[in-house]
Amino acid sequence: MKSRHKKFMAIGLGLAGLGVIVALVLNAFKDNLVFFYSPSQVVAGEAPQGRAFRVGGMVEEGSIERQTDGLTVRFVVTDTAQTIPVVYKGSLPDLFKEGKGVVAEGALGDGGVFVASQVLAKHDENYMPPEAAHALEQAAKAQKTVVTQ
Amino acid sequence: MIPELGNFALIIALLLAITQAVFPIYGAQTGRVTLMRLARPAAHGQFFFVFLAYLCLLYSFVVNDFSVTNVARNSFSQLPVVYRITASWGSHEGSLLFWVLILALWTLAVALFSRRLPEDMVARVLGVMGMISIGFLAFLLTTSNPFLREFPIPMDGNDMNPLLQDWGMIIHPPMLYMGYVGFAVAFAFAIAALISGKLDAAWARWSRPWTTVAWAFLTLGIVLGSWWAYRELGWGGWWFWDPTENASFMPWIAGTALIHSLAVTEKRGAFKAWTVLLALTAFSLSLLGTFLVRSGVLSSVHAFATDPARGAFILGFLVVVIGGSLVLYAWRAPKMITGGQFTWFSREALLLGNNVVLLAALGSVLLGTLYPLFIDAMGMGKISVGPPYFNAVFVPLMAPVLFLMGIGPLVRWRGDSLPDVASRLKWALAVAVATGFLLPFTLDGFNPWATLGFFLAIWIALSVLVSFRERLKFSQGANRFSRLAALPLGFWGMQMAHFGMAIGIAGITVVANYESEKTVRMEVGSFTEMAGYTFTFRGHTEHDGPNYRAARGVVEVSKDGRTLYTLHPEKRIYNASGMPMTEAALHPSIWRDLYVSLGEPLDETTGAWAVSVFYKPFINWMWLGATLMVIGGFLAAADRRYRIAVKSRADAKAGVAAQGA
């Protein structure tokens, strides 16, 4: 009887510990999910204020501007329907180019400018970042529906 | 002609795999020795033909046969020969063939080094490995044939991805695959034991060295991948919690839990069902990892849609392997008799604690890796789970495991006295707490994460020393050295791996808390300072590589007015793809790496560049620690008790089983 009680105690404690772990993991998970929005969605006000998210599309031709310090870069991300100005300070990935796909992570700053903390590009030139491709696709679909209507 | 020969060899290998899978297992079930004995020759033959097929592919790459689609897509006439060789396993098709080759190699190894195993066990183990091989060979031949030809023949190839043109990438994939596929042996042993119903300490003893070797290879593969990312991606990071990394890390965590659980099963006959489940898990995660990385699903879940046959095959294969083994498990596991009583403070209990927390950590990584894919596949939007999640979850979960690592090896099996163990470890604990707390003050002021890291590293290292001191008391020998040499390799291996972990934690702690980096605009002659070093930019020169052109920067590093080194970071443009790439330059030493990479040219007239400079203290301790873990794994697997005692025990057990039946 006594050893059985002990066993139940041990199992109960184990389960309680596991429950605490699961709760902590799910909480951290919820807090650190980064959602993706296309420029159209950001312009429509769907993106959150004061929380990090990702925006992606193409770097608009002729939009890359370097500040005088040489390190701060401004560029415009477009999904061909809408555009978002982005500012970023730091080194850019090798495959960052005008007319190419890009994904930036950061938050909305003053005046609708997206302040990026990270700019991502894929490791291979043949691949568009999937999120950027998605944004372009969505915009193309949206435009098509506008035309057919 | 040669590619067709390769294709033909693959078909013969498939037929041999079917032979190896069907007859020996049938023979083992019906007790026909002739059929069981087919397993070994089939395994030898399969290895021969898969190797032949692989050589054919390799030949096509080396001689630049661009009529083969796979070669044209992934190689280039100007590519140096060594990268043409590695390109043979760089693509989806080539890597799958390589996977099968490694599987055939492990199968051959089992066939050769299993003389002491009972015939029916060998038949079943090789049979299960044959089944896995059937799946992969069929996948290769039906959906991903590396030998397909192309017409018209392209003039030249598309080149290999420049990022992969690095010698870290030459050895990373083979080592990683040796690890992944090595868990197939543990899996096959587990399935064979489930089929036969003979799940005893002898079974654990047979599968233990194989599992440990696979684990050591996987560790090496992961570390090489991390080392490659650090040197090649150009921004000084070494672990990104990227899905491709997680894909190899998850089987590693399961494998780590497995080798510890196997220890309990071998020594005490306990945790049998749990150990088997871990063996199934480790290999299932290896399969999942292979497919996650190799199917293109990570760059887009819609990769499946572009080639539905591949997607359907992969999912079907995963369902058959994972589902089938779980059904077998559910059917057989309840019949296992678990032996060995133990109290809550015993080595068994501590290892159980280690296993539970490791699996919780595994679950958290799995969630963060698969959930975004799941959401995307469901069309519910795009999300990403970044390093903050993994760091917030993984570090707190691992801390208790690492603390237990310092206690477990000093606790006796079955049960021990807590006050007794505490008194043996009290000095180690006191020293670890004191240094962990004080060390950050001497560096940069109070820092709880650094304190935790230093404490764990010193705690584990001291516990290793205490273990050695205690073991030496009971070891035979004239002097200290001969007594050290008399300790079993299993003990050496475990302690070395644990010590490696301590070194690795120290490295991670220092580099994560005390590294510095900055990106600055540098004109010719301008300088920047970091950690007492002065980095002076001396401009750049043009430089031609075999298949690229590069701007090669000249950065002088000086300290106290003396010039110490000249570093040459490069910005390359690859000829075939036109793809730019940053090649960082680094000066390593045991205490720190100096790391310089070129950003973009900022001004053609003044020759100014954006230059990133990194100071990475203790980073080489990570690679050193991991290397010790790998060596520890190989040492433990080489322990002579696996070679000597197996026969007598096996005979004894076989006798018992026969009586029982």
Q: How would you summarize this macromolecular structure in one to three sentences?
A:
The complex is a heterodimer of chains A (149) and B (661). By secondary structure, chain A is an alpha+beta fold.
In the CATH scheme, what's the topology name of the largest domain in chain A? OB fold (Dihydrolipoamide Acetyltransferase, E2P)
The fraction of residues in strands of chain B falls at: 5-15%
Strand-and-helix sequence of chain A, N→C? Answer: HEHEEEEEEH
Largest sheet of chain B: 6 strands, antiparallel
The average pLDDT value of chain B, as a whole number, equals 89
Number of domains of chain A: 2
Low-confidence stretches of chain B: 646-650, 652-661
Task: Please report the total strand number of chain B as a whole number.
Answer: 11
Shape label of chain A: elongated
| Secondary structural class of chain A | alpha+beta
What percentage of amino acids of chain A are in beta strands? 25-35%
For the termini of chain B, the CA-CA separation is 56 Å
Q: Give the overall average pLDDT of chain A.
A: 81
Number of strands of chain A: 7
Question: How do the helices and strands line up, and which of them pair or pack?
Answer:
The complex is a heterodimer of chains A (149) and B (661).
Chain A: H1 2-32, E1 33-37, H2 39-43, E2 53-59, E3 65-66, E4 72-78, E5 83-89, E6 101-108, E7 114-120, H3 130-148
Parallel strand pairs in A: 1-2, 5-7
Antiparallel strand pairs in A: 2-4, 2-6, 3-4, 4-5, 6-7
Chain B: H1 2-30, H2 33-36, H3 39-62, H4 69-74, H5 81-87, H6 92-112, H7 119-143, H8 167-196, H9 201-232, H10 243-268, H11 272-294, H12 303-306, H13 308-332, H14 347-377, E1 383-385, H15 387-407, H16 418-443, H17 448-474, H18 480-486, H19 489-514, E2 516-522, E3 527-530, E4 533-544, E5 548-559, E6 562-567, E7 570-574, E8 580-583, E9 585-588, E10 592-603, E11 608-617, H20 619-637, H21 641-660
Antiparallel strand pairs in B: 2-11, 3-4, 4-5, 5-6, 5-7, 7-8, 9-10, 10-11
Helix pairs in contact in B: 1-3, 1-7, 3-6, 6-7, 6-8, 7-8, 7-13, 8-9, 8-11, 9-10, 9-20, 9-21, 10-11, 10-14, 11-13, 14-15, 15-17, 16-17, 17-19, 19-20
